[in-house]
């Protein structure tokens, strides 16, 4: 169920592969966040549909961080057991999550809704000066040739 905290937040335990990228929380760096996630997942053998989903989810989360965050954002991608997990953390004052969850006109306001539809679960942790969004979904690897 989207938005529901998974048991023990699933992904922190049993990490087998992973990577972290720190960037300024600016729109021009969203592309680098997507590319980072795509390159890691491709190196781990994810199939094309899984790659597309990872890129879209990380892009939405990084876009939210750039739009609503402050100075920095970090992007983490890792495998934990049968799941691929992503996390985007940004610094800055608290965002109004109620407004973000309501789709607005045009292109804005749909980021978390897209994440909810494409992932098996997601969690938003809001701190006084930062926000972390973590999401996970089942791994689909390309067949070996």
Relevant terms:
145 residues, 5 strands, 5-stranded antiparallel sheet, alpha+beta, 4 helices
Structural Rg: 14 Å
Counting helices, strands and paired strands, the structural category is alpha+beta
**What's the overall geometry?**
globular
- Please give the number of β-strands: 5
Number of helices: 4
The helix fraction, in percent, is 25-40%
Query: Low-confidence parts, pLDDT < 50 over ≥5 residues?
Result: 1-13
Main beta-sheet annotation? 5 strands, antiparallel
Mean pLDDT: 82
Order of helices and strands: EHHEEHHEE
Strand content: 25-35%
**Order of strands across the main sheet:** 1-2-3-5-4
N-to-C span = 35 Å
Brief overview:
This protein has 145 residues and is α+β, with helices and mostly antiparallel strands. Helix content is 32%, strand content 30%.
Structure description:
The chain is globular. It has helices spanning 30-43, 48-68, 97-100, 111-118, and strands at residues 15-24, 72-80, 83-91, 121-126, 130-138. The protein is built from four helices and five strands, in the order βααββααββ. Helix 1 packs antiparallel against helix 2 (48-68) and helix 2 (48-68) runs antiparallel to helix 4 (111-118). It has 145 residues and is of the alpha+beta class. The termini are far apart.
